[in-house]
Design goal:
The complex is a heterodimer of chains A (381) and B (403). Helix content of chain A is 18%, strand content 40%. By secondary structure, chain A is α+β, with helices and mostly antiparallel strands. Chain A has three domains: 9-126, DNA Polymerase III, Chain A, domain 2, CATH 3.10.150.10; 137-254, DNA Polymerase III, subunit A, domain 2 (DNA Polymerase III, Chain A, domain 2); 258-373, Roll (DNA Polymerase III, Chain A, domain 2). A nine-stranded antiparallel β-sheet of chain A has the order 14-11-12-13-26-25-24-18-22. Chain A has an eight-stranded antiparallel β-sheet with strand order 6-2-3-4-17-16-15-10. In chain A, strands 5-1-7-8-9 form a five-stranded antiparallel β-sheet. The longest helix of chain A has 15 residues, at 270-284. The termini of chain A are far apart. Chain B is 37% helix and 21% strand. Chain B contains 14 helices and 13 strands. Chain B has helices at 21-29, 56-59, 69-75, 86-101, 123-126, 129-144, 156-165, 179-182, 196-204, 210-214, 224-231, 263-284, 316-330, 360-379; strands spanning 13-18, 38-42, 50-54, 80-82, 107-111, 114-118, 148-153, 171-173, 250-260, 286-297, 302-313, 335-343, 346-347. Chain B is globular, with a radius of gyration of 22 Å. Chain B starts with 12 loop residues before the first strand and ends in a 24-residue tail after the last helix. Classes of the chains: A alpha+beta (381), B alpha+beta (403). The interface between A and B is medium-sized, with 27 and 26 residues.
Chain lengths: 381, 403
C-alpha cells in the first residue's frame, strides 16, 4: 500500500483490462468530475487497482460516481489523472488489451500492442473519496423503474438556480409508492412508481442534473439500493455507486397547481400528435419568441405556429377525440413537446382547464406520469 | 348621433371604460346587489376600511373613493360592503377583452377595466363607429353585466377624454372639431396626461383651462409642443396590440440637476425611476421579464447592464432592488444620468397565473399595488407613496382631488 511518508517506495499500480470496458467505465464516471476547479484533484479521476479490478471514482463535491471494472490486477495502487483527457483518449482506442502502469514521478502509462500513451498524474492527496454508504432510510428498486421515473420528470426542473429548490426533483415516499416531481414554475412533471419496502413518510429533493447522472450509471444494474439521510442520497448497483447531495428548502406542493376541474378533453394517437408538435417546433423556433397556438372548436384541434416573416404552419390533429368547450390557447412549443414525450403513453390525453389554467397531459393508457403546462398569455383570451 | 358621417381621412378609435368596475363584477356574480348602495372596501395599508369603489347609488350619499368606511356607513346605514376580490376582477377583465376582440383585433388594454380599440378597418363590416360602440355596450351589459362608457373618436386621447365626459353608460362622439366646444372650457387638469403638479405649474403661468393651454405659446411652457398639441385634440399614437413575449422595451431616464457623487444618491434617483417605470408597465398592461440600468458618468462615458428576472414583475420595489444591484456592479461614479429599463416584456391580463407556484409575498405586494393604482386613478398621482420616496423634499402628500 502507498504510504505518505515514503511516496517513492510506494507500490506502483499495474493492471490489464479491455480498452472497451475501460472506455465505458470512464465515460460513466467522468461526468462527475469538475471541468475546471481550483482544487485540481476535483478535475480528476481516482484510479485504484484492487484485487477485484480497477475502481474509478470522480466527484465534484455535489455528486460522486464510482465504477469498478474487471481487470487483471498485477500491482495494487492509486493515482489521480485529469478525467476529460483520459476519457477522450481511451474512447478512440481499438478494442484491445490495455496495460495501465504507474511510473516514477506520478505518471501513468497506457500500453497497447507496440504503442503507449504517457500522461501526468495530478496530486492525489486532495482527492476526497465521497462517502457512498450512509445510515438512513433505505429503498430498493429496479434500475429500469428508476431511470424511467427520472426521465419522465427531469426535463421540467429549473435550469437556473434563482429558486434553488426548483433545480431539484422531489421524491415523496409513502410506503407503497414513490412520487417524482419537478417544476420550473411554468410547467410541472409528475411520475410515480410502485415500491415495495419504501420508507413510510419521507421527502427528499435531489438536484435534477445529479439524479440524471446517478440513474444513468445504474442503468446496467438489475437492482438499485437507495440510501438517504438529511444530507445526501446514495445509490448502489452492480459494481457501481453514486451519491448526490440533497437540496434544502420547501418544494412547492404540486396539488396546489392542479386544476380543480377540466373543461375540455382531447384524446389523440401519440405518433401523429408528436409529429405535429415536432413540426410546429421546427417552425416556431425560427422566431425569437416561439409560440404555438392551439384552437379547439367544433370537435377539431387546430395548431398554428410561426409568423409571416419566418413562415407559418397551420395543422390539424388527426383522429382527435374532443369533448367539452371550445378553447383558444397559446403555448411554448418546446414545453408541449417535452410534456407529451415525458408523460409518454399512447393515446395521449390532454385535459384543458381554460385559456389561462394549466393543461394536463397524460397517457390515456395509464396513470403513472403526467405533466402540467401553463399556457402563454395572449391578452384577449 | 349615428346619423353623422365619419370623416374619411380619420381613424376610428374607441375607448371602452367599465363603470364602477369592481362593484359591477360583484353585481354580475350576485344580482341581489343590483340597485343597492354598494362599496368595495379594503385595506390599502393594513388599516381596514377605506372605500375603493363606490357604486353610483352609494355615490348619491356622498360616498367617494378613499373615504373611511365608518364615515361611509354613517352617511348610508344600509350600505353593502364587499371585500376586494382581484381574481374576480381579472376574470371579468379577460371576458371583457374577449368581447372587444370580436370587433377588431386591434385592442390595446389600458388598465384592468379600460381598453382602446382601433375600429377603422371594422366599419366596412360592422357599420359606423357609433354603431359598433353601441353594440359593444349592449353585449358587455347583457353578456357580462358590465356597464361601460364608450368614447368614440379619431385618436386615443380624444376617445379617452370622451368616455370620461359621460358616466355611467355614456356614449360620446368627440372629434377634433368638437374640442373647442367640449374640452376647452374644462380645467387644464382634466386633460389626459396632466397631473396635479403640472396643473399647478400651468396655473402659475395663468393657464387654467384646456382652451388656454391650446392657445399658449409652446415655447413658454414646460413640456411645450406636445402638451399644446394635445390641448388641441391632436394625438397620433397608434393603438398597439400587445403580444405575448413582446420584444419591446420600456425605459425611463433622467439627467440629474447636479452629478450624483455617491452611490447612495444615484440609487435614490434610480428607485424613483423604478417606481415610475413600474407604474408605466402596469398602466400599459405589461410585466417586465428583465431589468437594465444605464448611467452616464460625469466624464461622458455611458455604461449599461441588464439581467433577466427569474419571474416577471410589475413592482417598483422589485425593479428597484435589481436595478440597484446592477448599478452597484457598474458604479465608477460620479454620474450625470441614470436610467432604468424594462425588457422581455410580457403582456398580462391578470396578476400571476403565469406561474404555477407564485411567491406569496410578492403576490400580496402586487395586490396592494393594484389597489393603490385604483386609488391613484381616482385621485391622481401622489395620493399614496412608498415610504422610500417620501424621505426628501416632498412638499405635500395626502389626497389630492382633480379639480
Amino acid at each position: 500500500m502507498p504510504h505518505p511518508s515514503r511516496p517513492f517506495r510506494a507500490a506502483m499500480l499495474k493492471a490489464e483490462l479491455s480498452a472497451q470496458a475501460f472506455s465505458d467505465a470512464l465515460a460513466l464516471v467522468a461526468r462527475a468530475a469538475a471541468p475546471t476547479s481550483v482544487v485540481e484533484a476535483l478535475t480528476g479521476i481516482l484510479m485504484e487497482v484492487q484485487d477485484n479490478g480497477l475502481r474509478l471514482t470522480a466527484t465534484n463535491m455535489e455528486m460522486g460516481l464510482e465504477v469498478t471494472v474487471p481487470a487483471h490486477a498485477v500491482l495494487p495502487g492509486r493515482i489521480v489523472v485529469v478525467a476529460r483527457h483520459l476519457a477522450d483518449f481511451v474512447r478512440r482506442l481499438p478494442d484491445v488489451l490495455v496495460t495501465l502502469e504507474e511510473v516514477e514521478g506520478n505518471r501513468l502509462v497506457l500500453r497497447w500492442g507496440q504503442s503507449s500513451y504517457e500522461l501526468p498524474g495530478i496530486p492525489g492527496d486532495a482527492f476526497q473519496r465521497p462517502r457512498f454508504d450512509v445510515e438512513g432510510a433505505e429503498w430498493t428498486c429496479s434500475s429500469g423503474q428508476l431511470s424511467r421515473a427520472v426521465r419522465q420528470v427531469a426535463y421540467a426542473a429549473a435550469q437556473k438556480d434563482s429558486r434553488p429548490i426548483l433545480t431539484g426533483i422531489q421524491w415523496r415516499f409513502s410506503g407503497s409508492e414513490v412520487e417524482f416531481v419537478a417544476t420550473d414554475n411554468f410547467r410541472l412533471a409528475w411520475s410515480r412508481l410502485a415500491a415495495t419496502s419504501a420508507p413510510q413518510e419521507l421527502t427528499v429533493v435531489v438536484p435534477a442534473v445529479n439524479l440524471v447522472e446517478c440513474a444513468r450509471i445504474m442503468d446496467a444494474s438489475s437492482a438499485v439500493r437507495v440510501q438517504m439521510n438529511d444530507r445526501q442520497v446514495s445509490f448502489t448497483g452492480d459494481g457501481v455507486k453514486a451519491m448526490s447531495r440533497i437540496l434544502d428548502g420547501a418544494f412547492p406542493d404540486y396539488r396546489r397547481a392542479l386544476p380543480q376541474q377540466y373543461v375540455t378533453r382531447v384524446t389523440a394517437p401519440a405518433p401523429s400528435l408528436l409529429g405535429l408538435i415536432e413540426r410546429a417546433v421546427v417552425v416556431a423556433d425560427l422566431s425569437k419568441q416561439p409560440v404555438m397556438n392551439v384552437s379547439i372548436a367544433g370537435g377539431r384541434v387546430r395548431v398554428t405556429a410561426g409568423s409571416v416573416e419566418t413562415g407559418r404552419v397551420d395543422d390539424q390533429v388527426s383522429d382527435a377525440e374532443v369533448e367539452g368547450a371550445d378553447l383558444d390557447l397559446a403555448f411554448q412549443p418546446r414545453f408541449v413537446l417535452e410534456g407529451v414525450r415525458g408523460a409518454g403513453g399512447d393515446p395521449v390525453l390532454m385535459e384543458f382547464a381554460g385559456s389561462n389554467s394549466p393543461l394536463r397531459v397524460r397517457s390515456g393508457a395509464g396513470d403513472d406520469a403526467w405533466a402540467l403546462l401553463l399556457p402563454l398569455r395572449t391578452g384577449a383570451a | 348621433m349615428t346619423g353623422q358621417d365619419w370623416p374619411s381621412d380619420r381613424r376610428a378609435v374607441l375607448h371602452v371604460d367599465a363603470n364602477a368596475f369592481f362593484v359591477a363584477c360583484h353585481r354580475a356574480e350576485d344580482p341581489g346587489l343590483a340597485g343597492r348602495p354598494v362599496v368595495v372596501a379594503g385595506d390599502p395599508r393594513r388599516r381596514h376600511g377605506i372605500v375603493l369603489s363606490p357604486s353610483y347609488e352609494a355615490r348619491r350619499y356622498g360616498i367617494v373613493t378613499t373615504m373611511l368606511l365608518n364615515e361611509a356607513r354613517r352617511r348610508c346605514p344600509q350600505l353593502v360592503v364587499i371585500a376586494p376580490d382581484h381574481e374576480l376582477y381579472e376574470q371579468y377583465a379577460r371576458r371583457m377583452r374577449a368581447v372587444l376582440a370580436d370587433v377588431t383585433p386591434k385592442v390595446e388594454p389600458f388598465s384592468i377595466d379600460e381598453a382602446f380599440l382601433d375600429v377603422t378597418g371594422s366599419r366596412e363590416l360592422l357599420g359606423p363607429p357609433e354603431v359598433i360602440a353601441r353594440a359593444l355596450m349592449e353585449r358587455l351589459g347583457h353578456e357580462l353585466g358590465l356597464p361601460v362608457s364608450v368614447g368614440v373618436s379619431e385618436n386615443k386621447l380624444l376617445a379617452k377624454m370622451a368616455s370620461d365626459l359621460e358616466k355611467p353608460l355614456g356614449l360620446v362622439r368627440l372629434l377634433r372639431e368638437d374640442v373647442p366646444a367640449r374640452l376647452w372650457p374644462l380645467p387644464v387638469g382634466r386633460l389626459l396626461g396632466v397631473g396635479p403638479r403640472q396643473a399647478a405649474g400651468l396655473a402659475a403661468r395663468g393657464i387654467r383651462t384646456i382652451g388656454e393651454l391650446a392657445a399658449a405659446d409652446p415655447g413658454r411652457i414646460p413640456g411645450g409642443e406636445r402638451l399644446v398639441r394635445r390641448a388641441r385634440g391632436e394625438d397620433d399614437e397608434p393603438v398597439t396590440v400587445p403580444r405575448p413575449g413582446d420584444a419591446r422595451r420600456l425605459s425611463v431616464e433622467t439627467t440629474l440637476a447636479s452629478d450624483a457623487k455617491d452611490l447612495e444618491s444615484a440609487a435614490a434617483e434610480l428607485w424613483r425611476l423604478a417606481e415610475e417605470l413600474a407604474r408605466r408597465l402596469r398602466a400599459a398592461g405589461y410585466r417586465a421579464g428583465g431589468v437594465g440600468v444605464k448611467v452616464r458618468y460625469a466624464g461622458g462615458k455611458a455604461a449599461t447592464r441588464e439581467t433577466r428576472l427569474a419571474t416577471t414583475t410589475v413592482l417598483g420595489a422589485e425593479i428597484g432592488r435589481v436595478a440597484q444591484a446592477l448599478l452597484q456592479s457598474i458604479w465608477r461614479g460620479p454620474v450625470r444620468l441614470v436610467g432604468v429599463e424594462a425588457y422581455a416584456l410580457q403582456y398580462e391580463a391578470s396578476a400571476r397565473a403565469a406561474e404555477l407556484f407564485p411567491d406569496d409575498a410578492s403576490v400580496r405586494a402586487e395586490r396592494l399595488q393594484r389597489t393603490l393604482d385604483a386609488l391613484e386613478r381616482k385621485y391622481g398621482r401622489g395620493v399614496v407613496k412608498s415610504g422610500r420616496l417620501m424621505s426628501s423634499g416632498e412638499d405635500s402628500f395626502g389626497p389630492r382631488r382633480r379639480t
